[in-house]
Amino acid sequence: IADIDADFLNDQLDEFDILVVAGFQGYNENLEITTLGRGGSDTSAVALAAAIGAPCEIYTDVTGVFGTDPRIYKAARQLSQVSYEEMLELSALGAGVLETRCVEIAKNYNVPLYLGKTLSDTKGTWIMANTDLLEKKVVTGVALDRDILHVTLACSDIGTNFVEELFNQLDRLSVNIDMISQIVSGDDMNVSFTCKDTDRNFLNQILDSLNDKFSGIKCSVRTDCAKVSIVGSGMRDVSGVAARAFRLLCSNGINFYQVTTSEISISYAIDKDLSEKAVILLCKEFNI
User: Which of 76, 90, 112, 239 has the fewest beta carbons closer than 10 A?
Assistant: First the structure.
């Protein structure tokens, strides 16, 4: 989305009570008109609200944002308020209720965003700036992403430009990676990361290219993994959250292959067949 003519919209609002707008349109890198892709309707709505300085209300088939997927944890409670950054983390980590682009625009232009159910009197969820929240929970939500691959590459010669070539290839094929770690021991180096399983064909191309250029590369790709994440802006100010989560998973026999953290989230790569159990345990532990 390049621009929205706010003057035109405001002139029309002076004359009409309701405007019906054909959204979902933008342009690509070649300046060709195209669709906005997944979440384009929500993105259009927030962009229009940002242009005219109005709040945005989105009505859909759910009553609001829940702390986790209620299909997995039936006791999950709906959130009355959630911050932009928490919603961005939840969306990026697997919660599918809103696309990240929609929330990013709302955050960038400070647009209060409301999500509610169509033709329902049930109160929905307000997504707003962190400073506007009355109460900040330590853990706001638990997200689950079942559609990941866990990749580990071992190279026996750290003197080569193996890592640079790996990430150049990932960038060239637009493979979005997450949960990156690197371990160097003597002359050996291990690089691990996760990516979407829809990128498997691109990943195979990259691995073939690396094997042609470097010798002694060993590769392991786990397809039976899921990513479970806890998210909460209160983590910044409360210690011991990571320890509670680690103890909980370990004491219930849930091993994790990789862990990454941000200021407000902790993500674990675990066995897919234990992922729903992990979500339920974490929800109970943090009162989601």
Answer: 239
